[in-house]
């Protein structure tokens, strides 16, 4: 009987007094308090996590409804910020441009990602695995680098445009336009769409399509009548995610739309918050409008999905899906996919590397006459640029480690606690998913102003780590959470039965077993932190610039060679880690 009691005691998520672990003090009150302590700590952690993850939104909303900067005393409630915002012609045009930019970018990303997933996940194509890796490569490359490479190659005065004009007399379509911005944004986020569709398609048994084919349906009709309806949740989630990603874009509108003066909401915030003036009330009101647009979209997605049980396809009798043989047509399909990858990713990336080793590049000048290492000498010879690289490495390593352990404890609290606590942590973890990076930066800046002692964080690397952690916590939690769920609780119970504390069970059992998943989570944070620039735009100080903000400044000053060199340094430091993540998965 004693053995039975000990086996149920360790996991004291239940109310105190039901089962008390062995070795507790003899005083009943003290034993009850000690037994309830782990659950109290979990609740405290969950509430602190919630406060951390919503911290960018609260001061932002407060600033939007007061008549002066939130660090000034005596502020009164007002709607004047919204009146000025909605009467500003620049805001009106930026809102319309943002909607079109996001809609076109979402369509491009969704169609390209769905088509690639359909071809690479369901057809037996030559070189399928290599094509998958190449197609997914842009997911680890900053949109900033992709925008720079496209601008230098496909822009109105880019190398490809000048080459075509000199050879055939016709140039490329104008990249510096709303359509050009949207296409580039869609291409950069197409790998994210691919991952969502690939995961959904892998769970659809081939028997459903086989039944449709046996009934006389063509392969195309079987796909659109079976596959498309069943991946509707992923389709709607993909549309929502892409819409948010496009609203969140800052580099593409700045670099591609800037020369043509095509302004969207993110560049409107950037201009009114940093570049042109600092109108905090106007910026806060615009950020609140930006958040509302996204929240409306998120609610609409949930309404459109309805009862998720309608999309269940994986059951006890599900069979592993095989690849469909396509014969010689497979070579043509693989060739078309490779052509897309070459045009959108490989050639721009190689051109960017080539540009970093030249003083100037044009189809009218032999490349051998302009080869130089001056761009790299400038980067590594100027203290501010070197410091930005070091800052980025520190933020990525230290911030990535801190975010990984925060995610680990979040997973432990979520999946080793009562249902109410689990729902609170899971809901909190995914709140930042609907907050654009530039809004995270503005919100954290305001929070640091009004929270006592927060001013000491302004202009430090710590505030960048906090902002980046909030921004990417949903991604880290989505990666580490399932691994926590896979660990059977029996091993932790064995530690408790042997007299070990709950913390000992966590650190002696869960932590070692989760090491591979935590390494992957850290590497994901490292790469994400390294390429982040939007949140940092509002938070960096004179000594805390990171690579992304430095690249933006260099590009705006027209220093394309050093910008390309810094991009190459970024690729050298992040691509090996990206390849390692690929190898692990």
Structural commentary:
With 585 residues, the protein is mostly helical. The chain has 26 helices and 2 strands. It has helices spanning 2-8, 28-54, 57-64, 80-86, 89-122, 128-136, 143-154, 159-168, 178-201, 206-214, 219-230, 232-248, 251-257, 265-275, 280-305, 329-356, 374-381, 383-415, 419-429, 437-450, 461-485, 490-497, 502-513, 515-531, 547-556, 560-584, and strands at residues 123-124, 324-325. It has a two-stranded parallel sheet. α9 packs antiparallel against α13 (251-257) and α22 (490-497) packs antiparallel against α23. The radius of gyration is 26 Å and the shape is globular. The relative contact order is 0.12.
Short précis:
Helices cover 70% and strands 1% of the residues.
Highlighted features:
disordered N terminus; globular; mainly alpha; 2 strands; 26 helices; 585 residues
């Amino acid at each position: 009987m004693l053995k039975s009691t000990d086996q149920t005691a360790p996991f004291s998520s239940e109310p105190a007094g039901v089962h008390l672990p062995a070795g507790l003090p003899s005083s009943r009150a003290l034993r009850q308090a000690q037994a309830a302590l782990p659950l109290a700590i979990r609740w405290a952690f969950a509430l602190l996590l919630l406060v951390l993850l919503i911290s960018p939104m609260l001061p932002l909303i407060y600033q939007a409804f007061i008549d002066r900067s939130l660090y000034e005393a005596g502020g009164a409630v007002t709607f004047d910020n919204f009146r000025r915002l909605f009467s500003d012609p620049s805001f009106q045009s930026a809102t319309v441009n943002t909607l079109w930019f996001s809609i076109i970018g979402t369509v491009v990303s969704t169609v390209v990602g769905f088509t690639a997933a359909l071809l690479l996940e369901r057809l037996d194509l030559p070189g399928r695995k290599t094509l998958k890796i190449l197609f997914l490569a842009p997911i680890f490359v900053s949109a900033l680098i992709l925008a720079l490479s496209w601008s230098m190659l496909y822009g109105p005065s880019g190398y490809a445009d000048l080459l075509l004009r000199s050879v055939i007399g016709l140039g490329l379509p104008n990249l510096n336009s709303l359509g050009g911005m949207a296409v580039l944004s869609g291409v950069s986020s197409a790998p994210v769409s691919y991952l969502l569709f690939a995961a959904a398609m892998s769970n659809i048994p081939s028997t459903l399509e086989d039944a449709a084919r046996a009934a006389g349906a063509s392969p195309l009709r079987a796909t659109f009548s079976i596959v498309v309806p069943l991946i509707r949740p992923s389709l709607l989630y993909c549309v929502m995610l892409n819409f948010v990603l496009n609203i969140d874009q800052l580099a593409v509108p700045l670099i591609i739309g800037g020369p043509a003066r095509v302004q969207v909401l993110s560049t409107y915030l950037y201009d009114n918050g940093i570049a042109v003036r600092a109108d905090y009330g106007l910026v806060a009101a615009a950020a609140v409008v930006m958040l509302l647009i996204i929240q409306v979209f998120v609610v609409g997605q949930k309404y459109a999905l309805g009862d998720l049980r309608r999309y269940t396809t994986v059951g006890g009798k599900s069979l592993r899906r095989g690849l469909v043989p396509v014969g010689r047509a497979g070579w043509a399909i693989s060739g078309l996919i490779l052509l897309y990858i070459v045009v959108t990713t490989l050639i721009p990336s190689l051109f960017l590397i080539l540009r970093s080793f030249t003083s100037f590049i044009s189809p009218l000048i032999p490349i051998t006459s302009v080869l130089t290492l001056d761009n790299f000498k400038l980067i590594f010879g100027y203290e501010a640029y070197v410091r930005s690289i070091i800052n980025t490495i520190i933020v990525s390593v230290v911030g990535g480690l801190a975010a990984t352990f925060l995610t680990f404890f979040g997973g432990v609290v979520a999946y080793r606690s009562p249902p109410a606590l689990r729902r609170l942590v899971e809901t909190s973890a995914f709140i930042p998913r609907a907050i654009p990076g530039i809004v995270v930066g503005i919100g954290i800046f305001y929070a640091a102003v009004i929270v006592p002692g927060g001013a000491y964080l302004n202009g430090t690397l710590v505030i960048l780590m906090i902002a980046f952690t909030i921004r990417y916590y949903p991604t880290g939690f989505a990666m580490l959470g399932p691994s926590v769920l896979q660990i059977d609780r029996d091993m932790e119970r064995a530690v408790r039965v042997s007299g070990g504390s709950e913390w000992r069970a966590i650190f002696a059992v869960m932590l070692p077993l989760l090491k591979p998943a935590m390494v992957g989570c850290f590497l994901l944070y490292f790469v994400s932190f390294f390429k982040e620039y939007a949140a940092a735009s509002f938070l960096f100080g004179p000594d805390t610039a990171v690579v992304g903000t430095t690249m933006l400044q260099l590009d705006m000053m027209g220093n394309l060679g050093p910008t390309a060199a810094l991009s190459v340094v970024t690729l050298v430091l992040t691509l090996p880690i990206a390849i390692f993540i690929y190898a692990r998965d």
